[in-house]
Amino acid sequence: MRLPFFSMFMTSPFEGLQEHAEKVKECGWAFQQAIECHLSDKCQTFEEFRQEVIRLESDADAIKRRIRGHLPKGTLMPVYNFLLFRYLREQDQVIDAVEDALDWISFRSEPGIPAELEKDFVNLADAVIAPIEQLSKMVAEARTYFKNYSEEQRVLIKKIIRTLRQQEHEADKAEDIIKQKVLNMDIDAVTIFHMVRLAEIMGSIADHAENAGDMMRAMVAK
Amino acid sequence: MLLRHSPSRLNLINLRIMSQEYYILIIGYIFGFYMAWNIGANDVANSMASSVGAKAITIRQAIFLAGILNIIGAVFIGSHVTNTIRKGIVSTDIMTDPHVALIGALSALLAAALWVSFATWKSLPVSTTHSIVGAMIGFGIMAGGFSVINWGKLLAVVLSWIISPLFSIVIAYLIFKIIVRLILSKKDTFARALKLSPIFIGMTFFVVVLSFLFKTPLGKKMDLGPPASLTVAVILSVLLGFAGMAVLKRFVKDRETGAEGIFRRIQVGTACYVALAQGANDVANAIGPLAVIYFLVKTGSVGGKVPVPVFLLLFGGVGIACGIAMAGHRVMDTMGRKITTLSNTRGFAVEFAAATTVLVASKMGLPVSTTHAAVGGVLGVGLARGIEAVNFGIVFKIMVYWVLTVPVAALTSMAIFKLLQIIL
Question: What's the per-residue H, E or C state across A154-222?
Fold first, then answer.
C-alpha cells in the first residue's frame, strides 16, 4: 500500500555508523587486554583475545557492507555520501589495524617483547586506545548535531576532533620512542624488524582514528 | 407502430428502462463505495504517515481520528454541488444525452475504481483525483471526440505533477530551516518551542481558516471576499495561536522532550487538519460520478453541475472510513516500522507543507493530490538535511505513476464505455 511513499524513508546509515563505532570500541578493550596479557609472563589468554578481535572485526565488516549496500543512488542525507563512506573506511581501518597488530604479534610470539621495551609498549597501547574510545562518542554527538544543528553541539564535536589529533600526536611520540630505542639496541635483526613494524602498526591505529576525525570535521562543516 | 406497441407494452419498455437504470444506480453505489473504500485504504497514509512515524499518535488513534474526520470532512465540508465533470476538463456538451451520460459516469467510476484498486494491490502511489479526471477524459473522448477536451485544463493537471510537489518542497524546506534556526539550535529547545508555539499554531490555523473560507460550501456561503477572509484568518489565527500556547503550557510538563514534545502536540492538530481536508476534497472523487448517476436516474437529465445529497456525502465518507479502518492498520504498521527517522518537528514541517500546498494549489484551480504534496514535503525536509536518509531516487519512480494515472484511467474508461454501450 503506497509503499513507494514509505520507500522514501530508509534505515539511517548513522545507526550503522554508531553500531560500527561500538564494535571498534569493544575491539579496543580486547586489544588492551591482549597486549597486557602478551607482556605478562604467564599469558594464557592472548589467543582468546585475538580471536575476539577477529570476531569483532568480521562483525564490523558486516555492518560496513550493510551500510554501503543500503545507500542507493539518490539518497539524501545530512552529509554527502562520499564523506560518509570515507569516514566509514577510516573507522573500519582502525579495527583492521588493531587486528593486524595482534596478528603481527602472533606471528612471532616468542621471545616476545624485550623487557626494556615493555613499558614503552604499554604507553603506546594506552596512547592508541584513547582515540578509539573517542570515536563512538564522536558519532553519537554527530547524530545529535544532525538533529538540532546547534552551534554548541558543533563546537563539542570539534573539541572531540581536536582531542583525537592531540592523542594521535601522543601516540606518534610513543611510537618514535620505541623505534629509536629498538634501532639502538644490541639485539637480533629479526626482533628489531618485528618491534619496529609492531610499533608502526599500533601507531597506525591512532592515525586512522585521527583521519576519521578529519572526515567528521568535513561532515559537520557548515 | 401503434398496433405493435400497445400502451401496456410501452409501459413494459419504460419499466425495463427504469429497472435497467436502477440496476445502474445500484452498480454505481457499489463502485462508488468501492472507490471511497480505496481512497480510505490508500490515502490514510498521506494524512497520518508523518504523525504515526513521529510517534505523535498511536496507530489506533490515527485510524479512529482519520476515520471520524474523513466522515466529518466529507459530510460537512465536502461540496454539496459537484461539477458533473471533475475539474471541468471535458466539455459538458457530452452530458446532453442522458443515456450516454449515464453510461459515461458509470464507466468513469468503474475505470477509476479499477485503476485505484490495482494501485492499492500493487502498492503504487496514484492520485485518486487524477484517476477520476483521467477516466472522465476517456469517457469524453468516446462520447464527443478529442474536441471536447479542455486542453488548458489538462495542462493544469500536467502542471500539478510538477507544481504541487515543488511548492511543497519549498514550504517544507523553509519551515524546517526556520524551526532549526529559531528553536532546535538553541539551548533550551523546550522553552523556545513553547515561546514560539503561537507562531506555528497560528500559521496552521491560518491555513485551516483560509481553506475553510475559500474551499468549503459553508465558507463560500459566507462570501467574505479575499481581504475580509484574510483579516478574519489573521485575527483567528493570532487568538488561536495564543490559546494553543496556553493549552500547551498547561498540559505539556515534560521539559526533557524539548521542542519535539511541543511539536508532538501541534502535529496532532495538523494531522487532523489533513484528514479533514482529505475527506472534504476526495469524497467527490468517489461520489461525484455516483451523484451524476443518481441525478440522471431520478430526474432523467443532467446539466453542468449536480446537487449532491447529504446522504451521498455520508455514504462516501463512511466508505472512506471503512477503507481506513480495514486497511489502515496494515499501512500504519508499515509506517511505524519504516518511518523511524522522522521526528515531530520534521513531521510538522511535512504536514504543514502538504496542507498548505493543497490549499494554495486548489485555490489556483490545479487538481492537486495530497500524495504529491506529502511526497514533496518529505523531500523538502530531506533537502534541508533534516532526515538522516531519504531515498530521492524513488521520486522518479513515483512520478512515473503520477503521469501514468491519467492515460491508463482514460483508456480503461474508454474500453468500459464501449463495452457498456454494447450491453446497455
Answer: HHHHHHHHHHHHHHHHHHHHHHHHHHHHHHCCCCCHHHHHHHHHHHHHHHHHHHHHHHHHHHHHHHCCC
